[in-house]
Amino acid sequence: KRMPTILATFMCQTPADIASALQILAPLSTDERNDALMYLLFLSDAGTVYNAALGLYGLPLALPVAQHSQRGPCKYLVSLGALKAIRSKKHQHYNIGSRLNCICWALSACAKHMELMAHAGMRLSNL
User: Fold this and answer.
1) What is the pTM of this model?
2) CA–CA distance, 112 with 71 (Å, rounded to integer)
3) What is the C-alpha to C-alpha distance for residues 127 and 52, in angstroms, rounded to an integer?
4) CA-CA distances (angstroms) from residue 29 to 32, 39, 67, 123?
């Protein structure tokens, strides 16, 4: 009921705080979330909202954004399918960071992945 007002508040900030708006949508029911996403897409560009959802590593949230996009949802769906096919979360995070041209995110995810692999290798060598 108050969701449009809350979303408008985030979108009126300079710059618009799309990530915070999306985080509020996460716990909502599917119908409520879809209605709120439609309003958010009315207030902002679909590509910007999609990138913000990916930046939160929210593939389940990025999917309805892609589906409700009026500009070629197939483009987004193919990209999401490729990301979902990656089993490792750290590898997914690296790919998301590199797709969003956020080199710091991508390198951070890569470093964490390498840390985990090194730690796993040390445990195996101790056996």
Assistant:
1) 0.71
2) 35
3) 43
4) 5, 15, 17, 42
In tens digits, the chain (127 residues) has pLDDT values of 688 889 999 999 888 888 889 888 888 888 898 899 899 989 998 888 888 888 877 778 888 888 877 766 677 777 788 888 877 777 777 777 777 766 565 556 566 656 656 655 554 444 4
Structure tokens given for 50: 């999609």
Instruction: Report the C-alpha gap between 94 and 106 in whole angstroms.
Output: 4
> Of 106, 78, 75, whose CA–CA distance to 91 is shortest?
106
Neighbours of 120 (CB within 10 A): 10
